[in-house]
Structures are given as C-alpha cells and as structure tokens.
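Thought: the user wants the 3D structure for the chain below. I'll pass the sequence to the structure tool as-is, report back what it returns, then summarize two notable features.
Action: structure_tool
Action Input:
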Amino acid sequence: MKVRALKIEDRQKCEDYLSLHQSQCMFMCSNLKIAGIEYKGMDYEGEYFGCFNSCLEQLNGVIVHYWNGNIMMHASNQIILNHLVLHLKKKDQAPYSRYSWT
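Observation:
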C-alpha cells in the first residue's frame, strides 16, 4: 500500500473510484467536478491523497483536506482508512497547516 498526493493525471482514477461510492461521497464527487484535483486555495478545492495497491494501479481510498479546513474521506476498508488518516495527520504537522490535530 502506498499513499501519495493525487495529481492531474490521477483525476479520472479518482472520479472513477468515488463514483462507485457516490451515495457516500457526494460532496467529494461534487467538489472534484467543480474545482478539479489541484489545490490553489480557492473555494471547493482541496488537497487529494490516494491509497494505491503496491503496483500503484488500483486506487483503494481517498482523503481530501478542503480549502475550508474540512476533511472528507472514503476507503474500501478500515486498514486503508487508517493509512490515509495517518498520512494526512503526519503531513499536516507542519507549521503551515490549516488544521490542528488534537
């Protein structure tokens, strides 16, 4: 398993994954459609991270830290969800973070 930031070339993979779970991910689907996958600090944008299988082919979960501080996520199981949350928590320990972990 590998968690990494999603890039423009990952957008279709992200859309495909989220569309399979649209009833649970409607805000993520909508924000991705409206604002895209790149984060520039504008409304509806966020930093997208994905958890891939070891071959980096299959996306198994997504976590997004949005412009307004909200965090939304979906994963195919609890183990993947834990990896995503820990990755974001570790990344956001930096002093420039928009979110404070407690």
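Final Answer: Structure generated. The chain has one domain: 2-91. The two ends are 26 Å apart (CA to CA).
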